[in-house]
# Entry
Amino acid sequence: MKLTYLGHSVLVIEAGKVKAIVDPFIKGNELCKVRIEDLGNITHIFVTHGHGDHLGDTIEIAKKNNSIIIANHEISAYLGKYGLKTHSMHIGGRVKLDFGTVKMTNALHGSGISEGENMVYGGNPCGFIIEIEGKKVYHAGDTGLTYDMKLLEDEKIDVAFLPIGGNYTMDIEDAVKAAEFIKAKFVVPMHYDTFDIIKADPQVFKNKVKSSEVKILSINESMYV
Ligand code: NI
Ligand code: MN
# Structure
């Protein structure tokens, strides 16, 4: 399984015939050097919540590639109006799909979808545990620290992507606690440095985590598990 970090919370997962992207915030993401055209054939898009820096370019990418979008019921219904293919699920649910299994985990955050002057209800924010070819990736989405993360230890996660930027999500101190709860083999920090208010030093995070190996991925860097 190949995991590529494109800055903010954007993750590309490649395994077998699957090329999935999580939270495809490409165009407005100044850290992201990749263009939508460069992404290639995206088979699946995972959306953790409705905020613009996560829902991002989902509609354009899905239209271009006929991708299946996996999101909560409310976001799926919203995207369904655009004629896109969606798979709707909800917190705590696990499903077997053609490529592996997906579990939707809870996140402490918001999920409203900004549409001009209006805010469309986007249901509950979430994270995903995505298992393909026996490897498990956890993408936490945007979330505060929750003691529920302790339950994720039982999932035996290979790689956990955790936000560390603070203000909207966990900061480094809380993300260290989250990492200690989850005990993944590898932890990758995300959701930092995109905006001034979420500036954080991933090296500080790395030095504090004792329970897992922290892998700091630079923009467009890949790791293999
Ligand atoms: Ni958010
Ligand atoms: Mn965010």
